[in-house]
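Q: Structure tokens for this one, please.
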Amino acid sequence: MTRRSSGLQEFVRALGKEEGLRILDLGPTSPTNIARLTEQGQKVYNEDVLLSSMDPEFQVPGEDGKPVISPEKFLADNLNHQRHQFDAVLCWDVPDYLHESLVKPMVERLHYITKPGGILLGFFHTRDAGPEAPYFRYHIVGNDTLELQRGPRFRLQRVFNNRHIENLFKDFASLKFFLAKDNVREVLVVR
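A: Here is the predicted structure, written as tokens:
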């Protein structure tokens, strides 16, 4: 499935013609994204943080004895980069599917590793998407066009409204919202 993305168009425009920018892609590895961005002279780093979060290694016993994910253990192995290392981040819709205990710590870490003035593109489902909204891999096929490919069967954990998104990125300089036709809100965040 192919979709137009105003958020991606603004992301690409913000990157401009400068080469050698460091871009972090938080979704599953996409050879299409890597090829497209490296052809433009960018350096691409990839971390599938959602898949990684499923690793039992990051679980610890909770207060009730049931296993819970430890944000400290998770961040010791994931998003472990230098301060201000990245010029841009493709966050996709990872926060919607990520376990609640990891969302805020992940965004705080993204703030730490993104350069001041750097940009982040995130997608957030609207309430109309429903709890069974499929998880997609996003492939950049044009400056404003994405190809969506069904990914692993992750369950939508929550739906953020605009206020929640603003609170989540409260330490960043600005946010710009784009409402798409497919029950997804695109957000361009500037560090």
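A few notes: The domain at 2-190 is CATH 3.40.50 (Rossmann fold). The chain has seven helices and eleven strands.
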